[in-house]
Amino acid sequence: MSVPTEGESIQIHSYKHDGNIHRVWQETMVLKGTKNIVIGANERTLVTESDGRTWITREPSICYFHAEHWFNIICMLREDGVYYYCNISSPFIYDNQSLKYIDYDLDVKVFPDMSYAILDEDEFQEHKRQMNYPDVLEAILYRNIEKLISWVKQRKGPFAQDFIDVWTSRYAFHKQLKMNEE
User: Family, per the entry (predicted)?
Assistant: First the structure.
């Protein structure tokens, strides 16, 4: 299996359970790439929705993907603090310069004070019926929400301040390198 290279620009592809594309982020810079973990960063990147609509991300973000966890974490760096948008999803695969995962609707939004909210449970139930999610999948997803919330409470992984400091510094380094090359 290939892995993305540090400094490389990749796309992120989000799919739905039925195999249809959900959303594509045009450009994310890889800050760390192994077979189990990809950490990337982007800002002002073009995002294309499944219906063709496009938008551009507003703030710099550090993205955390793991090949063994059923979630990914987007750390949005805003002036009033770090906001986290956590997608409950399949573990990622890396294929053809693209990181790919299945989005399972459920999300956990974490605020700078580490309070959180579980979002889109109604959308999950609707898609579970439409796409026939197996019961075992629902159990896996809710177990991973519990794991994610325990990470938040413990300030573990992307929720640790040093994670943000290390990877924003690394991103600044790579942005400077890229600018010097141009």
Answer: Belongs to the Ntdp family.
Q: Is residue 174 part of a domain?
A: no
Catalytic residue among 23, 53, 78, 129: 23
Which residue range(s) make up the domain with 104?
9-163
pLDDT in tens, 121-168: 999 999 999 999 999 999 999 999 999 999 999 999 999 999 999 999
Tell whether 182 is covered by a domain: no
87 is in an annotated binding site: yes
The answer on whether 49 is annotated among ligand-binding residues is: no
**pTM metric for this prediction:** 0.95
Element counts in the chain: helices (H) and strands (E): 3, 11
CATH code for position 99: 2.40.380.10
Token pair in block for residue 144 = 């991973």
How many domains are contained in the chain?
Answer: 1
Angle (nearest 5°) at CA 162 between 118 and 67: 55
Task: Judge whether 123 is annotated as a binding position.
Answer: yes
- Listing DSSP states for 10-62 in one string gives EEEEEE-TTS-EEEEEEEEEEEEE-SSEEEEEESS-EEEETTS-EEE--S-EE
Please tell me whether 80 is known to bind a ligand: no
Would 172 be classed as within a structural domain?
no
Active site residue 23: yes
